[in-house]
Fold:
Amino acid sequence: MINFPCPHCRAENEVEPDQAGQTVACYACDGEVIVPRLTARPKARPAAQPQEVIARPGFSLHFKGCATWLLIGGLGLMMYQCVDRIREEKQAQETRKGRERVKANQ
Structure:
């Protein structure tokens, strides 16, 4: 049997091999369709070797990507906290220096 889609309605048609090259009516839309000729199929390429994926049981690869973003976000938060702590220490140091100047001037 020859299976081919109708170019008008995309319905799948099936005819006998001896009708190859002839014009037939589509079973769904009655449009004229030329039955394709059977040609020698090209040699199938060998299937690509599947890439080995090493994952722990219960550990999805999608989660691995999420974990990366969580790690990056956590590092960003830690950097922000360190910078904020340094800023607070500088402000406290400036405040202490200002108090010492006031005491020295009295």
The mean pLDDT is 81. The chain is about 40% helix and 15% strand.
